[in-house]
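Suppose a colleague, Dr. K., hands you the sequence of a protein chain of 554 amino acids and asks what its three-dimensional shape might be. Before reaching for any lab equipment, you can write down a predicted structure in token form. Begin with the sequence itself:
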Amino acid sequence: MHMAALISEAYLHEARAAMATETPAIPPKKKRKSRKRPLSNPVDTRRRERQRETQRSASASQDRRYDPVHEEGLELEHQDFGSLETHLQELRDTLTAVQVPEATDGTVSAWAQRQLLTDVRMKTARPMLFNANLSAERIAIQKCHRCCAEEAVIRCLDCVPLDMEFLCATCDMEAHKRNIFHDREAVFNGFLEPIPPTTAVVVDENGQPQFCEQICQLPVPTPRSICECSDDVTVTPWKHISVVTINGRYNVCLPRKSCPSCAAEWTPEVKDLLLYRYWPASTSCQTLYKYDVFTSFEHMKVTAPAMSRQAFLKMLEHRSVQAGRTGSICADTFQRSFFEFCFCQYKQEDMCQVHHFVCPACSPDMLAVCCDGNRKHYRFSKSKGTEEPPIYEGLFLAKDEEVATFVDLVRGNMKSGNDSAVCGTAKFTAGREMSKKSGAQIDEEGIQVAVCRHGFLLRGLNHFRGEIYAYPMFLQKEMSKKANVDFFCMDVTCRYWPYLNKIAEGLPELLPLTEMRPFLSVMHAKAHTAKCEVRWGGRSQDGAGNTVGEEVEQ
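The predicted structure, expressed as tokens, is then:
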């Protein structure tokens, strides 16, 4: 289209040039010299001027109407524009005749075309998919794929790679004696019925298949020798346990290996179970969790934090019912076991010097640390739980005793009657020197965290009263021990920094905190006064770069 526009413009210039050369030049009319006349009546003068204008317009229209030169120019102009339209039409026909390949650069229009084509294909294939799905439910009578003699009564899709999809009753017991986690289906009257691993199919005297119970042992290898006797040892079922995997719950038995001569026996211990990725829920090993269920739950909590533990366990129970198994999964036991599993993983990473609360990009020299609190993370006093000490005490959240001691130390060295948190017309309740404990039967009123400009969690604490200045001061003191921090970002830096200087005068150990540079968060600075924003705002600090100071909110 751009090329066509250029060609049409060239044709237009040529047509105008041709008209200019072929049309004879009309000599300009000579202007009459004005004669000075004596002054007359103004009314007569205006009347004469109107008569002259009327005569002049009439003569001009008559000249245009009967001028042969003008008529010839109009005919030439119409002729040239007619040829121009012809050339443009030829150009359009040429452009439309060229086959332009479809765009494959991933544009939106191409994507919309692909989606439309996919919808049309799926709509066409929908009846075929429905009929094929109905046909898959019908199972023809087949022979056993293992012995090729008896009629098959069991179908196992997990055995398809071994080319043993359909099995008879005898071959099913032999094949699934060790493969207890295979989901089997019994063939009855041309339909499939899921059965648990503790159910076997036998054929009665009349040749009809019947269900019966069987014992399944956990597939844990036993030691080759447990004593020095030469007699053959026997492997028998031991105690009944439940195993929870990503496919649900299984009821199995632990194996026991014994010698009939010397009465020596062997049963799997905790280290034997952990060797094959079974996590015990208790020291008695009544419930075992496969590692895959813990890793799947951990990944799910990272990608979907709103997913609850109860919903995850309900999903596992539903998968058990679909496979013909029954039994519920205790949520409290699962939570305790999962916490212990995560703690062991953390200890292993700690031995390998993997630190999760250290930013690898800006440690140990950090440009900025942002500190802020959130009072929505509260907990009522009546739901404090057990009195057991936390297993991650002091790892990320500081110990409550240490925070309380520091708060008492700061409050003992600062007695100020001016507790105003007003900056201009805005009043910030997020920063005060003193605050009373809430009377709403709340134990922990919120949480305060410190992060770097890359969003890494560095340190945190529980606060049991409002957001007083002593809480960020404690985090600032902790961060001064871990890294070299240049800027300390807060929402109310204009009130906090003078307070810090007063406290440092009475507590010399806090003087290194004043060496950091104050930084007022960029977004919150818009609510402060203009003078405050210029003095404390992050955009006015030399060396801060594009630091925002709102990393906790982000």
